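Subgroup meeting minutes
Present: P.N., E.W., G.H.
Scribe: E.W.

1. P.N. recapped why we're keeping a running log of single-chain structure predictions: easier to compare across weeks, and new members can see raw inputs and outputs side by side.
2. G.H. added today's entry (429 aa).
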Amino acid sequence: MEHTLAHNKEHYGQARVIGELITGRNGNDYAPGGESWKCAFAPDESRFAWSCGFRKVIILPWNRYKNCLWGQNGAHIIPLVWLELQSYDNQDAEGYELFTEKISIDAGFPVTSIAFGTGTPEQDLVPVKKEYWTRFDFSKDLILATGHSNGRIRIWDPYTGKLLLELTDHMKPVTDLAFAPDGSLRLVSASKDCTIKVWDMCDDGNMFKTLREHPGPVRSLCWSPNGKYLCSTGEKQKVLLWDMDSYTLSKRFCGHYNNVLSCAFSPDGAMLATASCDTRVIIWDTNSGEQLRVLNHMNPPPGVIYMSGENNSAVRGVTFSSNGCSVATICSDGFLRFWNLMNEVDEPESMGSALEGDAMLNCSFSPLGGAVSVGHASGSVVFFLAPPMVPSLLHLSRMSVRRAMGDIATWEDVLLPHTLKPYLQYKQW
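Output recorded in log:
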């Protein structure tokens, strides 16, 4: 049976491009071809960090209200941004825009991962007298971590570009980084050395735990919104859930047929989305491990034997919107897809592609959900406007209830109308 692309762009809404960051095409210092392995929005959506190839990281101010990069002097919005790296600092040539708040970092080594982290707000800090001296106090500041091809991790001040710390323990390239969302400044790192390491930025970056359950390279990491769980994915179809209070393996999710490349929690932590080379995205119930939805990127879905081999529809990235109603995925067929989970049919609401022949490597919703960034193999980034969606009051109530209920291992003892339980478990939308 012939397998074809599950979705034709002409049959769906077209995602609107609202901005681009394009690497230099004529420069000598930073020639095109360096992959943008990772991009990241700051948690407060005030900045956007861009790995634009080789050793270069650029941090730009982001306007959270207009879903655009701030323009020159922060005075107006530039909807389409062209950056030529060599002439960026010195020239104001036609077709180029300059940013006065731009921070440019030469990371020293090829960059393979990026993550922003922030500590507990000052008003929420509990005065604690440390019994030992530390060099840095990150508790109230935004910091940036970069992972590198030689296994090192570097911590930067995103306001000045100053190097603060260097963390060394991985033996192979760092593949992903993620800061805990609870303000504890715990950093987790994944690597091709098959390990996950946990670092404490409040203790000068002390590495205090190594998690070893992956038989192959670890590909991606994501924290649950409450900071209690960590999901890790990797080769040999692995999707693992870790209890980050005890730092033990909590659950294994079984259902993919090929390497799992990306993962993302829903805003209330009740669902987990994983993207795989088997052409599918599976949305799981975080507590039970049950498959809730399957988003197929080929039609008909390929069989198990086909899924174990090479194909042109590997799903490389998945990200949840801030309202929990939709996910965005990127695929090796060159399309970004927006999926409206409130629909009964698992088909994309809109699709988009921007750079012809340029492979998509990563995608991320902005924290407020208005835009999606897509990093490409050329080092460039394209910003898409997320489809507007107003969640129902019923869905917002469900998210609030799920956050308040926390972890529910079993629903049999929960005193609720039996018609409400499937809705709270996302078995009904």
